[in-house]
Specification:
Elements (H helix, E strand, L loop, with lengths): L3 E8 L2 E2 L2 H15 L8 H4 L9 E8 L2 E9 L8 E5 L13 H7 L7 E6 L2 E5 L3 E5 L4 E4 L7 H9 L3 E3 L11 E5 L8 E4 L3 E2 L1
Parallel strand pairs: 5-6, 5-13, 9-10
Antiparallel strand pairs: 1-2, 1-3, 3-4, 6-7, 8-9, 8-11, 11-12
Protein name: Branched-chain amino acid aminotransferase/4-amino-4-deoxychorismate lyase
Organism: Segatella buccae
GO molecular function: lyase activity; transaminase activity
């Protein structure tokens, strides 16, 4: 059975960025199961009113929501990254099956995580979208593996702009920020001299 997941941040008693999560979940449902009933994430998450940051994990498939779990969230420390190439990887839908990402993450070779390079261009880490700065503006890869909800929010606000970022151009940037639904923009930043090939 094909299953997908939405990871929603619960903080201050409310689910964050809910409209974007709901849109992505229902887009995925209609893409894989045309005519399926829409899911109302607001109703699914209604009882989760945690004040401190929690990670709600909504697993869903053809029959709708299959599982809901919620746990306190503690970000892992990422101080070093390694570029890892894979021209065939596809993770355009947030599936529970993370085997391709896990296989690449195992190639970190001492780094805390990886940046996946596809067709010569930077994409994402094994669990976040990224943005790089030249010291003036922040650029996010135009072709990420997954179009994250936080990424969409940052693009809409103008805090980041899309750009193809060749792996060979890493030296032109000063730092890389990792972000996702659980991590704020600026919460996790790695200097470019800590990104290894």
């Amino acid at each position: 059975m094909c299953l997908f997941v939405e990871t929603v941040r619960i903080e201050g008693g409310v689910p964050c960025n809910l409209a974007r999560h709901n849109a992505r979940l229902n887009f995925t449902l209609t893409r894989f199961w045309p005519g399926s009933s829409p899911v109302d994430l607001e109703a699914v998450l209604a009882g989760l009113t945690y004040r401190k940051r929690h990670k709600a994990r909504v697993v869903y498939g053809e029959r709708g929501v299959e599982e809901l779990t919620c746990t306190p969230y503690h970000p892992r420390a990422i101080r070093t990254l390694r570029l890892v190439e894979d021209d065939a990887i596809d993770y355009s839908f947030k599936s529970v099956g993370r085997e391709p990402l896990n296989r690449l993450a195992a190639l970190a070779d001492g780094a805390d995580d990886i940046i996946i390079v596809k067709n010569g261009l930077l994409t994402d880490t094994s669990f976040t979208n990224i943005a790089l700065t030249d010291g003036h503006r922040w650029f996010t890869p135009a072709m990420p593996l997954l179009r994250g909800t936080k990424r969409a929010e940052l693009l809409d606000s103008g805090l980041v702009v899309e750009r193809d970022i060749p792996a060979t151009d890493c030296c032109r940037y000063k730092a890389v920020r990792l972000f996702n639904a659980m991590l704020d923009f600026g919460e996790m930043e790695v200097p470019m001299n800590m990104v290894m090939r």
